Amino acid sequence: MRKRIAGKRIFVLDTNVIMHDPTSLFRFSEHDVFIPMVVLEELDAAKKGLSEVARNVRQASRFIDDLITKSPHSKLDKGIPLNNVVLPEKQSGKAIQSSGLLFIQTEQLEFKLPDGLPGSKPDNTILSVALSLKSAHLHHTVTLVSKDINMRIKATALSLHAEDYFNDRLSVGIEQLNTGLAQLPNDFWETHSKDMSSWKEEGRTFYKVSGPLVSQWSPNHCLYMDDNDGFEAVARNIDGNNAIIELAKDFRHKKHEVWGITARNREQSFALNLLMDPDIDFVTLQGDAGTGKTLLTLASALEQTIEKHLYKEIIMTRVTIPVGEDIGFLPGTEEEKMTPWMGALMDNMEVLSPNQDTDAWGQVATEDVLKRWIKIRSLNFMRGRTFLNKFIIIDEAQNLTPKQLKTLITRSGPSTKIVCLGNIAQIDTPYLTESSSGITYVVDRFKQWEHSGHITLKTGERSRLADYASEHL
């Protein structure tokens, strides 16, 4: 947890902070923001291209230009009022308005660094500028803000206060993140059955309950009792201490199989309850490798698209970050370029193939389903599109930033369902952590929306070898 520091402060921004979030200039309340000249140089070098980083850099440059234009009588070394630009904050309905000043380096600021830190490197130049500000402003706390861990370590070694950029992190610890699952105590019915009522509607069983535990639930929270009856339900409507809960369908039984598969544990059964519910538009599945995230999602997508005709087609995408060395440029169309990244899709389609006994026929059937119903798309071409009546699967969502996920989710049109899959223990994107990953961000922001659901899968079902490796390696 961050240590609270009293008094006005000066925040020196590293380049990666602005690249990550161009609105970071306005996120420091009444405090001042300082941008070293070398940061502007690095931003200028990264402004070209169609990547998310290049877009962020160009937006940050527009913000700075707008601030300078609206403050014609302000000098860069004296500070530019940040309150001349007001940004709408859609999440809270309030506007972002900083009352501090923006300073841009206009003269050489020198500070003698240790001989092991040559000043020619951009990182060390930023450290030198921050240390010079610290020595010149003894009555202010100078803080270097950087998403680079090594940069923060070097700053600490030089007795310079350094912090990560916290704005898009969770407001609670990762251990307090919503798991979507809650175990009910054995005395639940005794404490929550006052004025209870139950009824059936279109083959579904509902209970109206009230009590102190209800306030801890969120819409579509999965509830269970660990007793002989095996009671399992999903919270629907929540109003203070009153809630309507629906008896969950047990997808572990053969009669409830989805595209030929059944759930192997309680969490998977709950996941299928969320995935198969057409009233839930957004589902997030988080869990370790082998817990069945992709298999369950594909099975439910095929069932609802081909059998029930709820969606026109399935779109699958993921961020293209290699685990080892990059294999270089790939030839072909967009779909052909994405195919090598979709190994998980191919592997699971083999399991879901309706004719696994006949190898040749099974292979042809799988290829036919892939070509006709499942489209593979690249994240690079999602901006500006609108998907109507589609089932969209975003794989490896832990490697996406909150802004990238926002870009994808806002592409959804009417009758579209989006499912985000991720494992926060396997983050490969630089500067992303468990608490700042896109999937943890959306889990936290969507938990109170009645048309979203989340479940954390805990039990591996891949093989005994994979389970042992996950636990002991």
Task: Report what the structure shows.
This protein has 473 residues and is of the alpha/beta class. It has 14 helices and 20 strands. The protein has helices at 15-20, 37-45, 52-69, 122-136, 149-157, 188-192, 266-275, 293-307, 334-338, 343-352, 359-373, 402-409, 438-446, 464-472; strands at residues 9-13, 32-35, 80-81, 87-88, 95-96, 101-104, 141-145, 161-163, 181-183, 197-201, 204-210, 222-224, 232-239, 242-247, 282-287, 313-318, 374-376, 390-395, 417-422, 452-457. The longest helix is centred in the first third of the chain and has 18 residues, at 52-69.
The CATH architecture of the largest domain can be given as: 3-Layer(aba) Sandwich
Structural class: alpha/beta
Structural domain tally: 3
Low-confidence stretches: 321-328
> What proportion of the residues is helical, as a percent range?
25-40%
Number of strands: 20
CATH fold title of the largest domain = Rossmann fold
Count of separate DSSP helical elements: 14
**The CATH superfamily title of the largest domain:** P-loop containing nucleotide triphosphate hydrolases
CATH C-level label of the largest domain: Alpha Beta
